[in-house]
Write a structure and sequence with these properties.
The protein is mostly helical and about 130 residues long. It has 4 helices and 2 strands; from the N terminus they run ααβαβα. It has one domain (about 10-50, about 70-90, about 95-130). It has helices at about 5-10, 10-30, 45-55, 100-130, and strands spanning about 40-45, 80-85. The chain has a two-stranded antiparallel sheet with strand order 1-2. Belongs to the flagella basal body rod proteins family.
């Protein structure tokens, strides 16, 4: 009987990767809170997970010169997962970052990232126990 690590770990690896990308987006927003005309970005995590799961295992390839350019992450010319956040009260300099919102989103994403790590760690512990015959 063979063991497929993709099936054994489920979607936790994918969730960790997407949570990491979201952390980078949110950190960028916080770092650019005082940059004129900076537009805050975020991602729809559920939609990103569904899109990543539906992509399958193989990378997309352009088979015709009129096909869209596909980035290594599976997105079209950049990151289609990046969505601009609509601010409650935009700044006069065009910046749409609201520090309190970004910090709350970053903290929430950090907790969810840690939860994914815990789930993955528990899964690895269970597999090790099965391998050892415990």
């Amino acid at each position: 009987m063979s063991l497929s690590l993709d099936k054994a770990f489920g979607t936790q690896e994918l969730a960790l990767r997407l949570r990491g990308e979201r952390s980078q987006m949110l950190a960028s927003n916080i770092a650019n809170a005082d940059t004129p005309n900076f537009k805050a970005k975020d991602m729809d995590f559920q939609a990103a997970m569904q899109a990543a799961e539906s992509r399958g295992t193989g990378p997309m390839q352009a088979t015709h010169e009129k096909h869209f350019n596909v980035s290594p992450g599976g997105g079209l010319d950049g990151d289609p997962q990046a969505l601009y956040r609509v601010p409650h009260g935009p700044a006069l300099d065009g910046n749409t970052v609201e520090s309190h919102v970004e910090q709350a989103k970053f903290a929430e994403n950090s907790v969810q990232y840690q939860a994914s790590l815990t789930f993955l760690g528990d899964r690895i512990t269970g597999l090790l126990g099965a391998i050892r015959g415990e």
